[in-house]
Amino acid sequence: LVRAADQMDGDSCFVELEMLYFRDGPQVGTFLQKALQSCPTLRTIRLDGTVLDRVAYEAIVERMERNALESLKISRHSMDFNSGLLLAEGIARCSSLRVLDLEMTHLGDVVAGAILESILKAKALKELNLNSNNISSKSIVPIVQLVGELGLERLELENNFRLMENQSLDPRLQKALTENRSLRTLNLNGMSTPSRQFFTSLMHHPQLEMLKIGRNPLPDTDANEVEVFLTTNTHLKHLDLSDNSIGDAGLKAICKGLEKNSTLETLILQGIKAGDNSVVAMKSMLFANRSLQKLVISDFRDENGGVGVEGIRAIFEGLIHNTSLRILRLEKGSGTQCTGAPGWSDQSELLACVLNTNKSLHELYFAGRQLESFGRAVVAELTEECVIQVLKFGADEVDNCQKLRYLTNMNQVGQMVLRRVPPLSLWPRIFTTKKTNEADAIFYLLRQNPALIGQLKPQTSQQNQKL
Questions:
Q1: DSSP for residue 343
Q2: CA atoms of 142 and 140, how far apart (whole Å)
Q3: H and E: helices and strands count for the chain
Q4: What is the pLDDT of residues 78-94, one digit of tens each?
């Protein structure tokens, strides 16, 4: 970095650089200073987990004061008091800054207040991320003012404003959020329960595309409002309801709403209090819905232990007729029975039928234990009609399935990068070792694609015999 900084000048290769991104890097103050001086086109800076000194902050602020910075991300970094105030001064003078991401920078109320006040002065920001910054309810007023006066398109406040259990989200903030008609992304994960009126107002929001209200004590009664929300809203594409108090009644209501929804693409249902009684409702939802592309079902924890064979079978049967879902994650967590219940291994034939029939599902993830035999039974039944690209069964089977995932569609084998399968030059050697998983994957590929055999060059008679 020091050598690169010394070589920077107006004629260097950095002259047309547009974005600078450091992750988990060393102290980059001098380099950043030289880069900002030498690169007139540099308008995006991302510093994720990087050590920043006074020189770095001064360089960033100097760039802001010249209105030459559009996007700034400083995350996973403990911003000290003086650096925070210096940054606030730069923001106040910058009319070009559109995106500000300060996730996990330990701002606190004082520094956050100064930054929010500067944003209001500049009146230019469109996207703001303040996730996980120890901001308390003392900062509600400037945030409400910011939401009300600026045409924000993205606002993320995850894990701030920690309140007592069952307390509702501050009504002033709820009112400001619903009245802001430009919001496209809203993240309220880990905060407090929004009121029913909040959902009612969002139903008719003209722009909202992503809503995250996970890790909130959202009860079954409010899930009925979510049903109406899903039935009515025509803009939302991403909904995160993870780790709420939603139970069987709530999940049924959500599935009913999704049957009529035509816009939602991603639904996160992780750690809710539901089980087989409600998961079976997903069968009709998957059959009717034609917009959902990603579904996460994990760590369900009702009194019966979560999702069992009945629920899993209902999901599989719904997938046979589904034409939109691309990613399905059935991930095991504490108390989840979705991959460990008795009779689970008997579902391999049904799952293979799903994978051979469904033409939209490209990624399927299972997490659990002792799934090796189940995974092999499924793969053994796959045909050339299968289009699955990623297929994972539990921690013990991940490596093998990452190799096998490229082999399930014979029409695409030649076009796919076999990054999880060992290089071609190592294949003969693998057949003379005890790496049975790799050998099985390679044999499967060779059997379905014999043209590859001519490319192998065994170096010993033993390797040649194996091949």
A1: T
A2: 6
A3: 19, 14
A4: 899 999 999 999 999 99
Return the H-helix or E-strand segment holding 187.
strand 185-187
pTM > 0.85 = no
Question: Per-residue DSSP letters for 59-82?
Answer: HHHHHHHTT---EEEEES----HH
Res 237 pLDDT > 80: yes
**Residue-wise over 331-363: b if at least 16 C-beta within 10 A, else e?**
bbeebbbbbbbeebeebbebbbbbbbebeebbb
The Cα-based distances of 284 to 127, 227, 252, 257, 318 in angstroms read 38, 15, 11, 11, 6
Q: What six digits make up the tokens of 23?
A: 């992750």
The structure tokens listed for 123 are 């009146």
pLDDT in tens, 177-234: 888 889 999 998 887 666 667 777 777 788 899 999 888 777 777 777 788 888 888 8
**Range picked from 163-177, 196-210, 277-291, 366-380 for highest mean pLDDT:** 277-291
DSSP 195: P
| Rounded alpha-carbon distances, angstroms, from residue 115 to 49, 136, 338, 389, 394 | 20, 15, 46, 45, 45
Q: Which two tokens stand for residue 99?
A: 């995106």
Distance CA 428, CA 430 (A): 5
pLDDT at res. 93: 94
What H or E segment, with its residue span, contains residue 5? helix 2-7
Decide if 316 contacts 328 (C-beta within 8 A): no
